[in-house]
Write a structure and sequence with these properties.
Layout lengths: L2 H30 L9 E6 L6 H14 L6 E5 L3 H6 L6 H17 L6 H9 L3 H6 L6 H10 L14 E7 L4 E5 L5 H12 L10 E3 L2 E4 L15 E6 L1 H5 L5 H4 L7 H17 L1 H6 L6
Parallel strand pairs: 1-2, 1-7, 2-3
Antiparallel strand pairs: 3-4, 3-6, 5-6
Helix pairs in contact: 2-11, 4-7
Length: about 290
């Protein structure tokens, strides 16, 4: 196992485990103690942390997209959950997102494996720690992702996301949880996407930057996957609960970052597990198409 990921996993496992248990309980209370839904309230889909299982969460999103009426939902994302929550508002299919964003981004990242030895040594000396352990220049993964996402026109139509797409981000100085949904433009929104997923050092830098504030992964400051709101019924989607896996897999699975076969299998597994949990989504208020 990759040494870097193993060490990170050991340090973070207890934090993830404790918070995951709290989220499972809160989501059950939120959805099953309130069967009489207020029809005036908006339904919100809230996706939690994924780590390297982001394709699994996209499989869940694919099932929701093809099964339920999502025309008036809002979404929330924390860490890797920012991806499916964005795509379900985008007016294009999850399959299109895979073909136009995920696959090109992963193929682009694979080019690092062809770097010359001297180039790798230089990058490692200048602080690119992930390159030493996994052979990939993860300091540029967000830029590559943004480049491919930015080529899809719908992600520049801010009316689809403003006050509908919520992100939770951890601000470091002073420490606090940020809840953001007022997006200015694509660059501003992607900066939030980068900040809520930013694992310190894993992406080549100690911290991320959002609106001139030092930030990192949103899951470190939030027990839940969604902001506090009195007029939204949030449906929490916990990929570890649904797939019956320990949250430590969020970190160990990052070793498969550019493995498309791994992502395809996780995508299919996420779809099947969401289908198996169909009644959960119905009980939470979603209406079939």
């Amino acid at each position: 196992m990759d040494i870097f990921l193993f060490c990170s996993s050991v340090m973070m496992s207890r934090l993830y485990f404790i918070k995951d248990k709290q989220d499972i309980v809160s989501n059950k209370i939120n959805s099953h103690n309130n069967h009489q839904y207020n029809q005036k309230k908006t339904i919100g889909l809230a996706f939690g942390v994924t780590g390297g299982l982001f394709a699994y969460s996209l499989g869940i999103a694919k099932y929701l997209e093809s099964t339920f009426d999502l025309s008036s939902i809002v979404t929330s994302g924390i860490s890797g959950g920012c991806q499916p929550s964005l795509f379900l508002l985008s007016n294009i299919s999850i399959d299109q997102v895979l073909n136009q964003w995920l696959i090109p981004s992963m193929n682009d990242l694979k080019k690092d494996q062809n770097l010359t030895f001297l180039t790798k040594i230089f990058k490692i000396i200048t602080g690119n720690i992930p390159l030493l352990f996994c052979g990939l220049d993860l300091s540029t993964v967000m830029k590559r992702s943004k480049r491919h996402l930015g080529r899809i026109q719908t992600f520049h139509q801010m009316e689809l996301y403003h006050d509908k797409y919520h992100l939770l981000i951890t601000q470091l100085f002073p420490p606090k949880k940020l809840s953001i949904s007022n997006w200015k433009n694509f660059d501003d929104m992607y900066s939030g996407i980068e900040a809520t997923q930013f694992i310190p050092f894993y992406f080549g830098h100690p911290l991320g930057l959002f609106r001139n504030k030092l930030c990192c992964d949103g899951y470190l400051s939030s027990r839940h996957f969604y902001p506090d709101s009195q007029n939204i019924d949030w449906i929490g989607i916990n990929v570890f609960k649904m797939s019956k896996r320990h949250p430590i897999v969020a970190l160990t699975s990052l070793a498969n970052m550019t493995n498309l076969d791994f992502h395809r299998k996780e995508y299919q597994r996420g779809y099947c597990d969401a289908e198996s949990n169909h009644q959960y989504f119905v009980d939470c208020g979603l209406v079939m198409v």
